[in-house]
Amino acid sequence: MKKVLRIFFIVLVVGLMGYTLYFLFEKNQEAPVVYNTKSAEITTIIKKTVATGSIIPRKEILIKPMISGIVAEVYVEAGDYVKKGDVLAKIRVVPNMVALNNAENRLNQAGIELEQATINFDRNKSLYDQKVISDATFQPIKLRMRRAEEELVSAENNLKIVKDGVSGSGKAVSNTRIQSTIAGMVLDVPIKEGNSVIESNNFNDGTTIAIIADMNDMIFEGKVDESEVGKLSENMSLILNIGAIDSEKFEARLEYIAPKGVEENGAIQFLVKAAVTLKSDQFIRAGYSATADVVLDRRDSVLAIEESLLQFEDDSAFVEIEIGEQQFEKREIKLGLSDGINVEILEGISEEDKIKEWNMPGNG
């Protein structure tokens, strides 16, 4: 019995050793490598740089009053469309006390002068009618009365302008009625009824009554890094990506490149402007943030491959073309324009060739 157990134990040990050796052998056997392949495709290659900025109206006008006073009425609100000459608001003048006093004194003086001129005229008119005095003597008297009448009218208008901001003889043209100088959309009305406003003059910018812009003429205004600005030129094409309208891209054309850069966050940035192409039914709100892909070069409908398929040796580029089942040969190719992901193929391969993804093997 002991002999049988000894034999069984020996057989068991030998079997375990054999299984272990077999397992280790199988484990050390490498699985055959199967390389994936890709083919060249006809596509468009666009080499570009990126500018960041926003969409703004080309014509954005700040409407300011020509007189100081209190806002009596506001006739528009943001979003309204107005025509050139439309009244936006009305200003009630708060007269300057010194100017008001001077205007009243001038009116009183004009009244006195007219009264004296009228008395003198009436006295000499009867003498003139009786042929006592000559025409040469009477005409200066008549002229002085007419001048006194004109001075009185002028003094009355001056007082009305000081008090109300409008003359009695020119109500159609009034500085109290703030009018739009262009046709467009009202973007903002920063004043309300009852607000004080200051006139625009050589010493003061004045209070903004409204901001009006032509929303059919929009531009992209952005910044480009100094490392990229040398690649730009006017009339280059741009592709705009507007953050608020991610479902559509817009075309633009570069119009302006700043001759001087500005330092921002340790880097020199150059201002660029581009005209945005809008369809007849499109509306873009002012101030949308946007990025512009500036097209430096472009190739349409060209043969191209992914740059990851390339291999380089000395100054030559090549790919490995499948010539049999998992058998490849090197083939030198001539490259064209690259966008950093895909590269144009000028010579060396065709659409039918299968190219080895040499750095991306897969297990078969």
Provide structural commentary.
The protein is built from four helices and 21 strands. The chain has 364 residues and is an alpha+beta fold. Helix 2 packs antiparallel against helix 3. The longest helix has 33 residues. The two termini are 53 Å apart.
What are the salient characteristics of this protein?
364 residues; alpha+beta; conserved putative lor/sdh protein from methanococcus maripaludis s2 fold; Helix Hairpins; six-stranded antiparallel β-barrel; 26% helix
Topology of helices and strands:
Elements: H1 2-28, E1 33-38, E2 41-57, E3 60-63, E4 69-74, E5 81-82, E6 87-93, H2 97-129, H3 135-164, E7 177-179, E8 184-188, E9 196-197, E10 210-213, E11 218-225, H4 226-229, E12 237-242, E13 249-257, E14 262-264, E15 267-276, E16 289-306, E17 311-313, E18 316-324, E19 327-338, E20 342-347, E21 355-363
Antiparallel strand pairs: 1-21, 2-11, 2-16, 3-10, 4-6, 4-9, 5-8, 6-7, 8-10, 11-15, 12-13, 12-16, 13-15, 14-15, 16-20, 17-18, 18-19, 19-20
Helix pairs in contact: 2-3
